[in-house]
Design goal:
Helix content of chain A: 40-55%
Number of strands of chain A: 15
Structural class of chain A: alpha/beta
Number of domains of chain A: 1
Largest interface: A-B, 67 and 67 residues
Order of helices and strands of chain A: EHEHEEHEHHEEEHEHEEHEEHEHEH
Number of helices of chain A: 11
Strand order of the largest sheet of chain A: 1-2-3-5-8-9-10-15
Shape of chain A: globular
CATH architecture of chain A: Alpha-Beta Barrel
Largest sheet of chain A: 8 strands, parallel, barrel
CATH topology of chain A: TIM Barrel
Radius of gyration of chain A: 20 Å
Strand content of chain A: 15-25%
CATH superfamily of chain A: Luciferase-like domain
Oligomer: homodimer
């Protein structure tokens, strides 16, 4: 099995530090995570939240490329409608080059209203912008000849895009999907898929089935490494700690859902449905890995039995959690 | 006096290497340059050249932020018309944060036809796009409150831009200028100025006078560190080497001028002028610092006597040149 991480650095306005490591705790964590055996770090991109969320993920990955040597460097996700597709292709290729070919490029079409409003881009255009961007990005990475692009949102004339990527034909593309239909679409495109950390184990198993079915339908070989499953993790040593951890997680997820009106792949229910969290994919209580190391091993074993072999842990608050995972949980899954 | 460097990394298509340091020679050079006492590295940004020129300068600077600790990290220049001003403000702020406040942000409006054509942006819009972008970038860096922007080219609604910069109120802004008029305009804006490496010593002295005059006019204190003068440098140990170096420089500058129809701040002469290099600001033979260390010390002393105290050497082909500058030339200007 492969274990990676998913998260982001935070730097709030008014809390600037003058040392050479803004985002310092996050960076230290990634450096230690590599040594602890975690195989990837996927980082978010968000704008205008006011909470100091990471906005320039490819710049932070460039920095991490210099501070690490083996860990895969991923975005989860770069929201394509915000970006000029040629510029983002250049930036991603630069990270791939600087890291010796360690970029995993996760892309999405965006879901937060505050971001669509901020960038003055209608949410209705998200999918079309996303699809046009992917076309331009892949062409930018793979074409050794000059080309033109005349699309609905972007035009480029007689361009050749540099630098070259190290990974050929190009860095792996990942995207998040939640419904069976969208999962099947990802399988069809050839991208790898990320499954969120909100859905219950049961729903998660259904999603994996949807992926397998789609692979069959589109004549794609099933590779468990191309299905990354995100999961929250909290290690607790007593019943009380477990209750507290469950409560904290519930509050956090609810707060995010309230603030942004959606989570990746999950929209709020329609207004005529009284329970605003009545989204069947949102399972706060069952989705995460909470408990003692032994309990978590059992839960991961359940996922493994379903067919999952690639888990991304949500970056925990304490690095001590990563040390315990490395020492007490990972060895149980050494092949 | 302060000595820095100006240049860019190169990675051509078809010459990919799988080591963890694409752009490797350039990176090694910057790391050693810091140890040799060079105080800054300003890097270019170019697109679609087909020659492997650096396209994502802020990503490379993010990497260098991790590999260095004191050297200033500059762009020369980030061409604003290509970029979403909020995204570039976020990226630059991230570099400033990651480097502990070492970013010098050089900006320009672009001059290469191949880039305007490639990005499908009319050259006539360059100045207006540049000016609108600067306004948005500075506001993005400095506003702790949400704001709107409705401009000719960009609109943003209710945004607050993160992360915060380390340098306050924001990283220094630099821009290149060539004519007395444009130099005066830079002085008026409060930015620092970069003077190119093409102009003769005589013309360069006139430009400094234009800057001083403008500072007086706009009630700005003259600070020699805010005027960075670029100069090519080649160390030669014999008459023959000097002749060869002069010839190589002439060929290179002519070739670039031919290929792009312009150089920063220099347009080709009008078609009715027979000599296409009859631009009075282009002095191939006199502009550079060529010769033995003793000869170059004399030339730099001449610049110092004019009032220049901040020199950016064009990154030479050989790192040995930097070692000689550090050992044999810099000590002559230790204050």
């Amino acid at each position: 099995m492969k274990f990676g991480l998913f998260g982001g650095a935070v730097a709030r306005r008014g809390e600037e530090t003058a040392d050479s490591q803004g985002y310092g705790d996050f960076i230290d964590t990634v450096i230690e995570a590599e040594q602890l055996g975690f195989e990837s770090i996927f980082i978010v991109e968000h704008h205008f939240s006011g909470g100091g969320q990471l906005s320039s993920s490819l710049n932070l990955l460039s920095y991490l490329a210099a501070k690490t040597s083996t860990i895969r460097l991923g975005t989860a996700v770069t929201v394509l409608p915000w970006h000029n597709p040629v510029l983002i292709a250049e930036q991603a290729a630069t990270v791939d080059l600087l890291s010796g070919g360690r970029l995993d490029f996760g892309v999405g079409k965006g879901y937060r209203d505050i971001e669509f409003h901020g960038f003055d881009i209608p949410k209705e255009e998200a999918l079309a912008r996303y699809e046009e961007s992917i076309e331009v990005i892949v062409k930018s990475w793979t074409s050794d000849e000059r080309f033109d692009h005349t699309g609905k949102y972007w035009s480029f004339n007689d361009i050749i895009v540099e630098p070259p990527t190290i990974q050929k034909p190009h860095p792996p593309l990942w995207t998040a999907a939640g419904t069976d239909q969208s999962i099947a679409r990802v399988a069809e495109t050839g991208m790898s898929v990320m499954l969120d950390h909100f859905a219950s184990f049961e729903r998660t198993e259904e999603r994996l089935k949807a992926w397998r079915d789609a692979c069959k339908r589109f004549d794609r070989k099933f590779d468990p490494m191309e299905v990354a499953l995100a999961r929250g993790v909290t290690i607790t040593l007593s019943e009380e700690e477990l209750e507290e951890a469950t409560m904290i997680r519930e509050q956090r997820v609810s707060k995010m859902f309230d603030k942004f009106g959606a989570l990746p792949g999950l929209e709020k229910s329609l207004p005529d449905q009284p329970d605003s969290y009545a989204n069947p994919d949102l399972a706060i209580d069952d989705a995460a890995l909470l408990g003692t190391p032994e309990m978590i091993i059992k839960r991961i074993q359940t996922l493994k039995d379903m067919g999952f072999e690639h888990i991304l842990f949500l970056l925990p608050d304490s690095i001590e959690t990563l040390r315990i995972i490395s020492k007490e949980i990972m060895p149980a899954f050494k092949d």
